[in-house]
Automatic annotation (TrEMBL):
Transmembrane segments: none annotated. Pfam families: Inositol_P. InterPro entries: CysQ/Inositol_MonoPase, Inositol_monoP_metal-BS, Inositol_monophosphatase-like. Gene3D superfamilies: 3.40.190.80, Fructose-1,6-Bisphosphatase, subunit A, domain 1. Mg(2+) binds at E78, D96, L98, D99, D208. GO terms for biological process: 3'-phosphoadenosine 5'-phosphosulfate metabolic process; sulfate assimilation. This is 3'(2'),5-bisphosphonucleoside 3'(2')-phosphohydrolase. The keyword Magnesium applies. It comes from the Bacteria. Keywords: Magnesium, Metal-binding. Its cofactor is Mg(2+).
Amino acid sequence: MTLSEPDFPDTVAVRMTCDSDVELARLLATHAGVILLRLRTRKPMPASRLKADGDRRSHDFLTAALAKLRPADAVLSEEGADDAARLSARRVWIVDPLDGTREYSELDRDDWAIHVALWEDGELVAGAVALPGLGPTLTSEQPPQLRPAAAKPRILVSRSRPPAYAEAVAEKLGAELLPMGSAGAKAMAVVRGQAEAYLHDGGQYEWDSAAPVVVARGAGLHTSRVDGSPLSYNNPNPYQPDLLICRPELATPILSAIAASK
Ligand SMILES: Nc1ncnc2c1ncn2[C@@H]1O[C@H](COP(=O)(O)O)[C@@H](OP(=O)(O)O)[C@H]1O
Ligand SMILES: [Mg+2]
């Protein structure tokens, strides 16, 4: 695969400044965001085409850049064929080239994201989530300081597929549910103090949560499955159907409410 002309100079710039894995994650996610913003604003096209082109272009950029800049590492991407070599690799980049694909194709929405995470020797060690519609790319190393929590907890859920028990959990906690697209956008809204929790159940894959989770951990948030068990990455089957990211003081109350509501 070759890099397209407008992308190549940026990749050269990345190569000159990318000794740090977290900095590389930040630069790649941010640049993929530029590619996606450009595609979205350049000329009108049907939503189905925009989604397909966005997924493909961002994936092509990320995988070509990683092949060039980290040739010894494996990659697990939502948009690529899964290569079993990742199961014996020490370092695996877990990427979602466009999370919130549906929202990306709705031109007035900004709840979509690019996820770049690095798994090394059994753990997520670095990552970045770009939010091109909103501006910032957040990383596991320099997340913003957590703001004070709202008195009435705000729990983010999928716009299209909220957990069946979400209403019951919210009622038990005296919380409100806020629908939003994209796992990365929801997780970063918790990091940025716009909500207290993100709850998902019913289906998801490792690339949907790897980068959001490592950034959220860097910010001091709780991350787990909805039964409280640890999240684990680079598994033979990357299906990981549920997720809780929340302020640490809400972990026990939310997990108890989930257990009582499921
Ligand atoms: N039930 C389900 N099964 C598989 N993937 C799901 C899912 N619910 C949500 N997801 C994925 O999780 C991400 C966030 O979803 P949502 O916006 O609904 O919260 C989306 O990723 P992509 O946009 O990368 O496909 C979506 O496809
Ligand atoms: Mg996704």
